[in-house]
Amino acid sequence: MTLPDTLLQVLRHEGVVAIATQGPEGPHLVNSWNSYLQVAGDGRVLVPVGGMHHTEANLAVSDRVLVTLGSREVPGAHGPGTGFLIRGTARLHASGPAFDQVKARFAWARAALVVTPEQVDQTL
């Protein structure tokens, strides 16, 4: 999937990213930073994983994820600032090309969370 140009602009500005998974105890959220995300050539989103043990356990049960991100610096549909909701699937990669790409920027990463977007909606 090709990500919208506006979303790519958002990634050039700092902001908080929220990643939601579903597990036996209900929804679980973790955070990251816009500047940590990388977009692979095929549109997958790569996130460095330091901890995220609860997220990893949830993904073993269901690979469905929701990711939100935004920036006040990018004009939105209704004024200053915009945000996005990415719906898709995710897997943790502890080796391979996606992991190598993440590890090259973030030496502390134990894995790469690879998000495959299925639907991307602008929320602001």
Q: Distance between the terminal alpha carbons, to the nearest Å?
A: 21 Å
**Could you report the average pLDDT, rounded to the nearest whole number?**
98
Main β-sheet description? 7 strands, antiparallel
**Which strands sit side by side, in order, in the main sheet?**
2-1-5-6-7-4-3
Shape: globular
Uncertain stretches = none
Number of helices: 3
State the share of residues found in helices, binned by percent: 10-25%
Assign the structural class, choosing from mainly alpha, mainly beta, alpha/beta, alpha+beta, or little secondary structure: alpha+beta
* Rg over CA atoms: 14 Å
Strand tally: 7
Organism: Mesoterricola sediminis
Domain Pyridoxamine 5'-phosphate oxidase N-terminal: 4-122
Pfam family, one: PNPOx_N
InterPro entries: Pyridox_Oxase_N (IPR011576), Split_barrel_FMN-bd (IPR012349)
